[in-house]
Write a structure and sequence with these properties.
The radius of gyration is 23 Å and the shape is flat. The protein folds into two domains: about 90 residues, no CATH class; about 80 residues, no CATH class. By secondary structure, the chain is of the alpha+beta class. It starts with a helix and ends with a strand. The longest helix has 21 residues. The protein is built from seven helices and four strands. The protein has a four-stranded antiparallel beta sheet.
């Protein structure tokens, strides 16, 4: 029971930090919460603060007794705190703290679809969606011999002139940048709208 209560309190704190302040990564407006809900969520922070005050010194003593030299312990502590802060405030900046666990805590679209940007290639079967992460796996790649890092870089720079140039050099058919809309329920493609 205590574990369940602790999980609820921590999830409540994460919900507050990841959705109360809008940031540049929000694709849809953050949903409005009533004053009563906000007050309840703020009240649930009290047990978390109390636990930090009560158990914080014990954790600090345990951490200081570990057989790790002082300087590496300070560096690891600072990195861990910075990571926690970045996750809590949804300020992940690749590659330092690219956690992205709570980056999508936004109000979902109400029409039952979701969209993402991708490249499409004309093929004999119609249109093929070029999936960058697939191309980074040698077992499943269809067009490129990339490694995982190259696929991530290409995915990150989707739609930029640099990514366009890499694709133009490596593909027989031209790749066009598009917005692909999927059914949220089953993942079927609703539409593909090319941009160029």
């Amino acid at each position: 029971m205590r574990l369940a209560a602790a999980v609820i309190v921590v999830l409540n704190a994460l919900d507050l930090t990841t959705s109360i302040l809008p940031t540049f990564i929000d694709e849809w407006p953050v949903g409005h919460r009533s004053t009563a809900v906000l007050l309840i969520q703020l009240a649930l922070l009290v047990p978390l603060g109390r636990a930090a005050i009560v158990h914080g010194p014990r954790v600090a003593r345990w951490w200081s007794r570990l057989p790790i030299p002082f300087v590496p312990r300070v560096v690891v502590s600072l990195l861990a705190l910075l990571q926690l802060g970045h996750v809590a405030l949804r300020m992940e900046i690749y590659p330092f703290s690219n956690v992205a666990m709570f980056s999508s805590v936004v109000t979902p679209p109400t029409d039952g679809t979701y969209s993402e940007s991708s490249y499409v290639i004309d093929s004999s079967d119609g249109v093929e969606i070029l999936r960058m992460m697939r191309e980074g796996n040698p077992l499943f790649a269809r067009h490129f011999q990339w490694d995982y890092k190259a696929a991530w870089v290409m995915r990150m720079y989707n739609g930029t002139p640099g990514a366009d140039a890499v694709l133009a050099e490596g593909l027989a058919a031209p790749a066009r940048f598009a917005t692909v809309t999927y059914e949220q329920r089953d993942g079927h493609i609703c539409s593909i709208v090319t941009h160029r």
